Amino acid sequence: MNNAKSIRWHLFQVLLVSIVPLGIFAAGLLYFHWQAQQRERERSQMESVRLLAAAVDNALDSTIQRLGIFARLWGTSASDERTVHAQARDALAASPDWINIVAFRADGGAGVFRADAPFGTVMPKMRLLEMWLPLVREQRPLVTDSFTSPSTGETLISVGVPVMRDGRVTHVLIANLNARWFDELLNKQGFPQGAVSGVIDRTFKFVARSAEGDARRGADAAGPLVADMKLRQEGLGRYTSLNGIGVYTSWTRTRHGWWAAFATPSAPVAAAFWNHLLILVGLWMAAVAAGLAFALAKSRRIAASLASIEGQAAELAQGRHIETPPVSDVQELARALDAIHQASEALQQAMRQRDASLDVERQARAAAEAANRAKDEFLAMLGHELRNPLAAISHAAAIIRGGCTPDQLEFASGVLTRQSQHLKRLIDDLLDVGRVMTGKIQLRRQPLDLASAVRQAVATIQAAGRLADRQLSIDVEPVWVDGDTARIEQIVVNLLENAATHTQPGGRIRVSTSNQGDEALLQVSDDGRGIEADALPKVFDLFFQGEATADRARGGLGIGLTLVQRLAELHGGSARAASGGPGRGATFTVRFPAATEARARVGLSLVGGASASRTLLLVEDNADARASLRMLLEMHGHQVLEAADGAGALEMLRRERPPIAVIDIGLPGMDGYEVARAARRELGRDIVLVALTGYGSAADGQRAIQAGFDRHVTKPVTLHDLMEAIGEARRAA
């Protein structure tokens, strides 16, 4: 019995065999694409809620830091309660995230003052004293959950810090937080339209909400969400919101014990999938209908060729290479088969190029993401490192303006000196690492004793108080190297500061020098936190920092060890780190080529001595900088002439003929370079010219020398460094 079917039937079968798998394949692609989008959406939502938690923690940390500074100033000064009350009112006016500052005595809870009321206003004993008992007992800051004020009935959130005097808590300083400020903080996060974010306290009540903040504040969060929060620190799930809307909600716990939550409507996500699926089905059905019409229009003669085409198309659809195309007696089909073969060749080439492009793209994306993360971490740490000294300088200036005692004046001046030096060191390190990374740093090599450089660096860092409470042992022997004195000392200082940062008070730090064959060794070891094995290869990477802990008072910028390694390599040496693991300390070893012929260095003093009286011209357009430097020079017995611009400087040079001139570069009208060139034309080499500027790159120094300056020093400059530069210039002349 002949079961043969017509060409139309065969073509219909071919059509089904071709189109049905494609439809299924397309549906599968749609599903997997949707799944990938779901995973990306979930990842993005979790990243968003983590950023939200970080923003909340940063806000609470800021409050604790500001209150802590205020409490330390109260605890370490002799200010009376009225003065502290006035300062609290000023702090409250400058802090939009606070609604009040309240102080209570720790022994019984008697009220001292409220910043929103005049001093002396009668205050009841604190009825919520038991809430603050952990603060008094453990002497640590405390962040409360939301509670109802017994006096006003408002829902409040508070942060408290202890005021310490003579090792005990004397007062409790409390800031009542502005909950609406937290609502605004949530709204500033840039979440998509329709999304809702919230902050929930430890009792699972709302502290703040990006929508309906006032209405929901103090209310319980949704029950199913709370149940999941109790099981996991962070997660994401589908819930029904308090408004009865289906949402995807992600949550995470903050460092201060609160919860951050972020919800997006679930309806748009599901609707998008079904809309795309309906479109796909419609297109697929349209393709089937078109194929049926095509099959009905063809004749039996081309059946065999069509079967061949179907097979070739299947191969092509799977991305496989077609080695030899079949032969067809139909000219058009033969050309089609040949075209399929050429398409297969082109597809293979395109796939190879695509694979290569994807590989390059993956590598580029990974590098870009790593660079972006390093940039973000560096900017965050740079902001932290700059804010700390700026805050201390601001407070010290406020102490001086407030009519302080001699002891307070000495304390404030010490703060100004230390913090300005700290800022200068940060800026110098940033500039140095830029020069080192771009190969623009230049070394002034000369034979020097590595042991002497170590002693000088230790004296410098000890004078700055950065080795306080650490036990330092020095075991050095004379070892001569051919190096740059300032850069060698910079290596030692960075290694010692790194050791001090990662060593607890009372810990031991050891620095030693020795000679091993044709190498000079510098070693700095400590018994501090140690380095984990997986972090050991990365300690010299730019901006890399170990895991932060609560006992690290200084975070740093993550560039000190990079400078150590690069400066050692510029000297022809190397830097290596070793550690037995966490809690077992670390050892940093720097190797330099030993000098082949060491010679004793002759100590050169400044011409006339740093304390010898000199007459010099100071040219500076900034009145405060000019007056302060003039006052400092006059305090050390020098006679100072001054000018505020280039024209005045030249007139003073012609009239007074001083032997030394210190000139700022950025002057109005005629800049410092023009002044130097004019002075050289008129006075020749009879005057020492020193450029004092904030431009500190190697190119700036070279430009100053070309303009006629003898030396180039950067701001801020100490009197010792300025006089040393002058002495070097006079000796060179």
List keywords for this structure.
Beta-Lactamase; 733 residues; 18 helices; Heat Shock Protein 90; 19% strand; 5-stranded antiparallel β-sheet; alpha+beta; 50% helix; Helix Hairpins; 24 strands
Span between termini: 119 Å
Find the CATH superfamily of one domain: Histidine kinase-like ATPase, C-terminal domain
What structural class should be given to the helix and strand makeup?
alpha+beta
Binned strand content: 15-25%
The CATH class of one domain:
Alpha Beta
**CATH topology descriptor of one domain:** Heat Shock Protein 90
Largest sheet, order of strands side by side? Answer: 2-1-7-6-3
Instruction: Tell me, rounded to a whole number, the average pLDDT.
Output: 80
Oligomer: single chain
Estimate the global geometry from the Cα principal axes: extended
Biggest sheet character: 5 strands, antiparallel
Quickly count the helices: 18
From the alpha-carbon coordinates, what is the Rg to the nearest angstrom? 37 Å
In terms of per-residue confidence, which ranges show pLDDT below 50 for 5 or more consecutive residues? 549-554, 598-611
By CATH, the architecture of one domain is named 2-Layer Sandwich
- Strand segment count: 24
| Helix content estimate | 40-55%
